[in-house]
Structures are given as structure tokens and as C-alpha cells.
Amino acid sequence: MKEIIAIIRPRKMNATKQALDALGFPSMTAVPVLGRGKQRGIAGEINVDIPPEVLAQGKYRAMTYIPKRMLSVVVPDREVDPVVQAIVEINRTGQVGDGRVFVCHVEEALRVRTDERGDSAIL
């Protein structure tokens, strides 16, 4: 099993959720987070109108941290590639701040209610 952790734009959350649901993975954890990448924060990430002439002049300041969503979904090994591909396709805009995807090994999963283990605990 693998845990896929994705840091994405908040406005891409619904489309990402729908894509994962269509692949058969409706279960996920989503957390609002603050952070920044190499761009050191960008003002265009939040729903604030910055006049185009100000953007063109580069006279706006970067934000210290920008709001993102961190998704976590655990999938069987054979499903990693389609899930990662779906996340990337939905979230790639070609702009700075599209996010990151991390794939981590999960040694064991246990469903507390039924004591199921392994893939049956996550499907």
C-alpha cells in the first residue's frame, strides 16, 4: 500500500475529489494548510482582485504563506499510477504554485470497526 499526499490549490479541491471518486477512491483526508514553495508565496493564490495593471508592473508583494489543501489517500500499490496521474492532470495549470505530490510506503492498515487489515481495510 502507498499513501499519496498531495498539496494542491484550494480551488482545485472539488475537481480532485470528483476525479478520485471516479477512480473508486472516495475516502481521503483533506486539511487546510499554509505554506510556500520556491516562489516564496504568490499573491494570486487567494480570491483578491489585483488590478491587471498592477500585476503587469510587478508591484504587488508576495505572501509569507499561501493557503493550500493537503490531501492524503491510501491506495493499493497497483493503483498508485492512475491516482497520481489524475491528481496531476486536474491540478496542473502550468503556473507557479501548482503543488506537489508525495508517495510514501504504508506498512499496514487496520480498520478499527471490523479489524480488517491490509487492502481490505482501505477499500
What's this entry about, in short?
26% of the residues lie in helices and 24% in strands. It has helices spanning 13-22, 52-57, 80-91, 119-122; strands at 2-8, 29-35, 66-75, 100-105.
Could you explain how this protein is built, in words?
- This protein is of the alpha+beta class.
- It has a single domain, classed as Alpha-Beta Plaits.
- The chain is about 25% helix and about 25% strand.
- It is built from four helices and four strands.
- It has helices at about 15-20, 50-55, 80-90, 120; strands spanning about 1-10, 30-35, 65-75, 100-105.
- Strands 2-3-1-4 form a four-stranded antiparallel β-sheet, with helices on one face.
- α1 packs antiparallel against α3.
- The chain is elongated and about 60 Å long.
- The termini are close together.
Shape verdict: elongated
What is the CATH T-level topology?
Answer: Alpha-Beta Plaits
| Assembly category | single chain
Major beta sheet summary:
4 strands, antiparallel
Q: How many strand segments?
A: 4
Distance between the termini: 11 Å
Q: Name the helicity range.
A: 25-40%
- Total DSSP helices: 4
Give the helix/strand class. alpha+beta
What's the gyration radius in Å? 17 Å
Mean pLDDT: 87
- The strand order across the widest sheet is 2-3-1-4
CATH architectural grouping: 2-Layer Sandwich
- As a percent range, the share of strand residues is 15-25%
What is the chain-wise order of helices and strands? EHEHEHEH
* Overall structural domain count: 1
By CATH reckoning, the class would read Alpha Beta
Low-confidence stretches: none
